[in-house]
Write a structure and sequence with these properties.
The protein is mostly helical. It contains five helices and no strands. Helix 4 packs across helix 5. It binds heme C.
């Protein structure tokens, strides 16, 4: 549960601080912004990138982003659907809590995840 509390705190902080700046930028979802968001929001539970500052703190870490991206059934639509709907009613569980992201954050994260599909 500790991981979730940390997650919620980071999400609240981030939601407050970046919302204004990054919205409505021209050029569509930005994978670089997605990478940045992923490094600050998702690393407590996932291996986002091999050079992330700290390893996940879950006893049984969630699947690495690379593994998720490379699944043949992972698409932009499946990722968006997951991020917007996973446990949106908060029940204590051992699966991923809903990150409560704004649309532009979902779009940036998905753009980043999709870049991992074709990476060696
Ligand atoms: C509190 C821990 C935790 C955090 C933080 C977390 N995840 Fe997860 N995530 C999980 C767990 C556990 C799973 C595997 C079980 C499940 O599907 O819920 C998972 C699975 C996933 C999946 C795969 C879903 C599928 O189709 O199998 C995606 C995509 C994902 N996470 C994206 C993210 C993104 C993006 C972030 C950051 C915004 C994030 N996660 C933050 C715990 C977390």
């Amino acid at each position: 549960m500790k991981a979730f509390i940390r997650f919620a705190a980071i999400a609240a902080l981030l939601g407050g601080s970046v919302q204004g700046g990054a919205q409505g930028l021209p050029g569509g979802p930005d994978p670089v912004e997605g990478h940045r968001l992923a490094l600050s929001l998702c690393t407590p539970c996932h291996v986002v990138a091999t050079d992330q500052e700290l390893p996940p703190i879950l006893d049984h870490p969630a699947p690495p982003f690379r593994t998720i991206a490379k699944r043949p059934d992972t698409t932009e639509a499946s990722l968006k659907h997951f991020l917007l709907t996973t446990h949106s009613t908060m029940q204590p569980s051992f699966s991923m809590p809903n990150p409560g992201l704004a649309d532009y954050q979902v779009n940036a994260l998905v753009a980043y995840l999709m870049t991992l599909k074709n990476r060696p």
